[in-house]
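Q: Hi! First time asking for a complex rather than a single chain. Here are the components, and I think there are two in total. Is that enough to go on?
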Amino acid sequence: MDEIPEVKKNEDGAGTGLTPVGRVGAPRGAEATTEGFYCWVPEDRLIEKTQLVYVDSPAGPTNVRFYGLVSEVFRRSRRADMLEEADRFDGRPEEEVPIESRGVTYAQVRLLASQPNVFSPPREESVVYPAFEAEARIAYGVEEMDQPVVIGLVRNGGDAVAGPAYIDLDYLLGAMGGHMNVTGIAGVGTKSSFLTIVLQQVLRACRRHAEEHPEDPEKTQVRPVILNVKGFDLFWLDRWSSAFTEEDRETWRQMGWDDPAPLEASFHAPQRPGSDHLAVPAGRDDVMPYSWSLEDVVRANLFNYLFSDSDREDDNFALLVADIERILAREWRQEDGTPMRELRREAPAKTFQVLFDWFEGGLRQDGGEPAQSDAVFARLASVHHPGTLRRFYRRLRRIVYESAGIFRLEGAGSHPLDITQLEPGKPVVVDIDSLPDRHLQRFVVATLLKQAVDQQTGPGALPGMHYLFLLDELNRFAPRGHSDPITQLVETVAAELRSRGVILLGAQQQASHVSPRVVENASVRVLGRTGGHELRQDVFSFLPESLRDYVEQLGSADKVIHQPSFREPMHVRVPRPPWAMRKQEATREPPAFLAEEGVQPAAIGGRRLPERPYEELP
Amino acid sequence: MTARRLRQLAQAYRVRAIDDAPFTPLPLADQALEEDEAALKARMRQLSYEVPAGEWRPIPCLGEPVSQPRRFIDGSVFSRTVAVFTVEGRRRPAVLACVGALALELDGRRLVRSSGSLRLETVLCLLSNGIPPEDLQALSDGLEAVGIRLVASETTELTADFDVLRRRCWDMAKQRMEDEERAVLLQAPEVPAVVDGLLERRLTTVASQEMPVIGMVKRQMRRYLPESHINLLYELRPGERTPAFLLETEHAFIVSWYVRLSAADTLSPGYGVVRLTAPREYLERRFPRRAERWAEISAVSHWLHGLRHREQSYARAGISLEPIVRVEDELHALLPAVGREAAKLHRALGV
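A: Yes, that's all I need. Here is the structure of the assembled complex.
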């Protein structure tokens, strides 16, 4: 994982040169506790909210070093009320008073860690010192992390930073916890940008580990799946961002990456209706199409996912779906126990079109001696109400006809996505935003999750393999209060499958609109700028009250990150990624300052050809 | 050894631990006598020192002082009656006091504490009549080991009245505080200073009469002006003063005058009036020409008026100076809690 670089240790503050920032005060009403303490600050020193500090203090017979985070800074004058403030100047701002006010600046500090680990507060009058990178590593337990990964820089006041900010992959990839959940309002929250940075850092860490430990049979491997849910914004991750600056590069350097570059990714979008091998227009030529035929759906056991929550709540409908699935599919197990499915040879339909024709015929009931398939339909009709049969026919036809190409009426020309065959370490971006129906979007997500779940839980599970799903707008795919199969699948991933290596990097604007099982099971919780009403929901109970106003005003470069091993959330400054997060900023050419250093333009993927003779190509 | 000897003494004198007020408050009339005990010896010497008595008028305070006061000095004493000794069959009170004095110096607009400008101590005050010197010495040594200084003195009128005796003990503590104030004042004798309280109790030597010091008396327990001139006090407006007059005290002559720092319609006409004093020796040597002397008195008064405390939440805002209040605040933060010191004493005595 990321090596913790050698850093210059600060001088021991106690008596050897570091300028103190204040002293602990513990008067009545502002007592020091095991959660935190207050310290006053002299007039000529600066202390800032989000600054890190430490204090050496006796706790019983032991000398302890306490590490803390400034959660608020106060200023109090000596006056009892605003009237006295005005009286001091006789109500005239231009009046001068011979003696300065000599109020007091004091800070509220929340404890992050102590060495040795004691659950006791620091003592009043203990000297408080500013903390830097070395102390930040101790405060956030970096030394105890088995697999630390840098995801930004630790914020240390207004503009200053205290070195790289680490999270522990053991809390992300399943060893001690799993999943990441990011909340942030549209635009300023920069959720997707952050998730791609985390993903890239995880991939880099895995690559480095593999290079250093090629003999490790269970080295961590990652198959990342990025779901595009907004325009084709994420279809430019392999291009440079025109907004990437030298300052951004410097931040990446501080994070330990000297030559940040765009991602290497492949791109998939819904198949274009009427085409056998082109995807819908995405603004680039190297996008792979995806689609499913009836045979693909049956083989992958996705038939149930075609129907919506409201349909499935109807017992009659659900039973009919199950019966039809039995008619179409044959199941068996291989020698290794892997369950297999395929279309029955004798199935009444091999394609969606034939299935519709069969249903039409059956519903018409022309009479005469039925063929075998008609007998099959007759058996169905004898068990299910005609209304249910018609409803099924209408639903399925609508789903397929309105699928904008991802369900092939005829069997030929389908390109089912199979993420289990992807090259590890290379992200695949799958567009679902261009699908016209939210139900279809959920179908695609469920399909991909199911592939990962099936492989990771089956006999073919690969040691060390992890599937990372990067999914924004979780409120659409696992909405609170819903129980459809797709929501249940996402909940299952979140609640039960982190130990099997299926990991969700999810995001939403409002976590209170997402299934609690999904949000609460994320070990790493990240907050970008979030509205005040949302922050008061129970789902944010981990956030101290004193930080709520701060989170409401976060800038786009700032995040608050909570991991189970942190006593308090970590304030992180996140750089702009070098890759483009939307088409408008995408460019092949690197920024000028990088081009001067010889950095090459981004590579272009292979062009997918249309269905016409080559001579007619432009 | 010292600790054991202390406990032996406590047994010998049948010391009993108590926790009571330092002294019983006296009726107001008696208070006047008690508070200004030393001032009883002060008397009006010359009403016409600045202006003939018949021409007294309020004088507006203006100008910049030549010797602008930069040090502000105050002392504090927190005390309790903590023990009863039995000496020659009679009860004898012991008063424990945490005393201190502090000077803050004005540096630009900042009040700063300089090295040596703080003096703190804890004292046990005991009337020593009938206690052998060797016992007093042992008691002193034992108390010193726990950070308490023994202040023992004989009284000429030993009474069986416990409350009178403890009042005398408290006076010893107050005297100790004044000694500390004097020591702080003498730490920088050339720097013009303001001292809270009776100047004549702080400047008791001939040499000290030449120091540039202004005393400020907030509570007027004694009137020096004749009946005919008292109304003038009530006619003063904020920032105005009376003409200066001369007082003769036990140790020296002091120049005094009244200044009104503030006024309030809903309060008595005497509210906001303070009495300022300065050593005659200093004023007349430094400002031999009368016009300059009166100008300096006006300018200092104007300067101090500008330093008046303006926050009504402070109980004595109308007659206080902000720097002196700051000294009080800092001193109170520095002095140890008398209760904690009493507990330490009781443990040492084994009572």
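A: The first helix of chain B runs from residue 2 to 12. Let me know if you'd like any chain examined more closely.
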